[in-house]
Amino acid sequence: MGSPTPCRCLLRLLPLVVPLIEAYALPTLRARPTRAPRMSLPASPLPPPPTPPPEARGALVASMDEAALALGEAAHALGEAPPRRAPPPRGPDGRLLPVLTLPGDSLDDTPIMPALLALSSLLAFAAVGRAFACGAGPLAPLLGVALGGLAGELLSGAFHWATDNYGSLRTPVVGFACAAFQGHHLAPWTISYRSAANNVHKIGAAALAPTVGALLWLPPVPAAFVATLLYSQLLAQEFHRWTHTPPHLLAAWQRGLQDAGIALGVNEHVAHHKPPFDKHYCILTGRLNAFLDEKPVLFWRRLEALVYRINGQEPNSWKDPRVKEVALRL
């Protein structure tokens, strides 16, 4: 008999994957969480620092919010942002109430959101499972998934760096992402009000076509690499949400993933939320940040210098002249 076809491999995996989807995504359709009132206003990779205790993590989350409020007031004073009447009030759980600034943005779930999350999850699990089910041994699939995760960490940083530093809402294709990432610095607590499906469904939609293409046209191990690379972007955005959520509102397993360094930790991400937002861009685990940010690599400064020499465009991080000076010396 010949080797199993992709369709047969996928059929073998469906009994394993479908229960996961039913347990995670479908409940979102059946029970919508109650939303708080919201306001709408115009060397080598190093492990992350030791995880602080829960009360310290809560203080770090609050410090990002307070820094954003101060930054917003400074931006209003300089005329770089529309005036805000007063800081948003706090809800019953102690969080600042959400602030939505982008057209069409909403914290409400729609049926398509969990459907996109479920479908993108199914395809990613199917691609990885096929590599293990249809291969001669576990080594090649494990290598493909590991490399996909490493590339996914770098991609999460590259996309974060690009949207933080370039573009605006008027930028074609990625304008909403540019405005969302840049506006996030002024109201970082808002992301904590989103459900998982609301938070990642757009990334899931963007990942569908290339994941299907990888399943159809690539051998199992390369397809698993591509699927892991793309699905890790959903995970990165969700892990990012956790870092802006007070620890007492996270489940024990979520805090456990942060403690284990599998998910981005608050103590790692808080270093990014300091003007001019020029470091700590990777948001999957954050383990590449020390390597990319420091000498002699200075990866983002080198990219910024390259872009500047090609088209003369200065990144937002160069609003700090010290960052610009470092980049132009490279």
Automatic annotation (TrEMBL):
Keywords: Membrane, Signal, Transmembrane, Transmembrane helix. Residues 1-25 form the signal peptide. The keyword DNA repair does not apply. Residues 44-55 have a biased composition (Pro residues). GO terms for cellular component: membrane. Transmembrane segments: none annotated. It holds the Pfam family Lipid_desat. This is Lipid desaturase domain-containing protein. It comes from Prymnesium parvum (Toxic golden alga).
